[in-house]
């Protein structure tokens, strides 16, 4: 349950982070049942008197291109998969997208490579990336054009005004040292009221002190910038070692044949869990398990090199492009008879 107070005030603090763009025309291809599409991408133009462009009742990449071109949109909001789909669309060159000054991405981890690609393909625009959840009334942190490039391209920024954030040991709640991973906890005006009809689940998610335990893993650096590692439930424990899939994904995504790679954990009787890389290859590219394992050597500790590899044209996604890792695990377990 989200509050009107949280909705309005989160839109206002977004403005504090971004006070210069008062006459923006925002292209919003996101579904309104998603918190990002409902709040910042729609609430922002309503509260600030900006123009909102809705390309399609559903989602169609070609319609987004036409909308940006026709209405001279200055800002594009979307999930990273939407942005990469726009960049790779075969008819993109037919449209003038030079009006874009900002591409705001969220809803999934946005790699430095995707941010750099976005700014390369839209030369007049900066990539803005935030972090949040439905329970935080969309974004709780955000980078901006004012942040150093090293932070803007690698982190999800600092908390909004009036929002607190800490990294805590998920078992004890004790705050972790700078740059040490832990669970991301958020507190502030933007925190949801609770899960409707489920007081027990609400108590599990929100501490008596008002901290929302996100279930996400991250680190805070010495300047207060947040980096997201992944979901707590996605962390793989292999032979007693905590392994974060994002580290392995970053290495494999750098392979010249790999379009995209996601890493999941699969059950193993001896080690507890084993690593499985779900690989989407570039068009006409080829790669073998042995080749990808060799590529990992020297870049990853030996116990972080995946044992299993799945090669598919894509991976299961939600309506806004989030990976459905539960379905990926089910498919991989079936493939390897686990």
Automatic annotation (TrEMBL):
It catalyses: octanoate + ATP + CoA = octanoyl-CoA + AMP + diphosphate; a medium-chain fatty acid + ATP + CoA = a medium-chain fatty acyl-CoA + AMP + diphosphate. Keywords: Ligase. Belongs to the ATP-dependent AMP-binding enzyme family. This is Medium-chain acyl-CoA ligase ACSF2, mitochondrial. The keyword Zinc-finger does not apply. One of its GO terms (molecular function) is medium-chain fatty acid-CoA ligase activity. Gene3D superfamilies: 3.30.300.30, N-terminal domain of ligase-like. Acyl-CoA synthases catalyze the initial reaction in fatty acid metabolism, by forming a thioester with CoA. Has some preference toward medium-chain substrates. Plays a role in adipocyte differentiation. GO terms for biological process: fatty acid metabolic process. Residues 1-196 form the AMP-dependent synthetase/ligase domain. Residues 247-322 form the AMP-binding enzyme C-terminal domain.
